[in-house]
Amino acid sequence: MGDRVQGGLFGAKSVSEFVESRIASAQRANFNLADLHTYEGFFETDGYAVSLAAASRLSELTGEESLFNYWAALGEGMAWPQAFEETFGISVEDFESTFRP
Fold first, then answer.
1. Is the pLDDT of residue 25 over 80?
2. Tell me: the pLDDT tens digits for 34-60?
3. What interhelical angle do 47-62 and 80-88 show, nearest 10?
4. 29 or 1: which leads in pLDDT
5. Residue 14 β-bridge partners
6. Mean pLDDT value of segment 19-28
7. Three-state DSSP class for residue 82
8. Is there a contact between 45 and 36 (Cβ–Cβ < 8 Å)?
9. For residues 99 and 58, is the Cβ–Cβ distance under 8 A?
10. Residue 67 CA neighbour count, 13 Å, CB half
């Protein structure tokens, strides 16, 4: 199956096409990344697309393995803001203030 999405997802024919379309959606959204901290903010700002764009940017900046390291730190009980800063080398606040998809 590789990069193919069985039956399509949001009209995409591949995972990479899906990711590209969601990042494009995030680029059109009017949002503040900190809005994703609340349930309402997440769904008012197309939170899935914005989250995917943010994760993609973090992966570009620090490598894909860092995403796995972040989740591992959370699984070991580290608070998410501390895990974020230790894994990605930037505070949540600094990332949120500078991030644009």
1. no
2. 888 888 888 887 788 888 888 988 998
3. 40
4. 29
5. 4
6. 78
7. helix
8. yes
9. no
10. 12
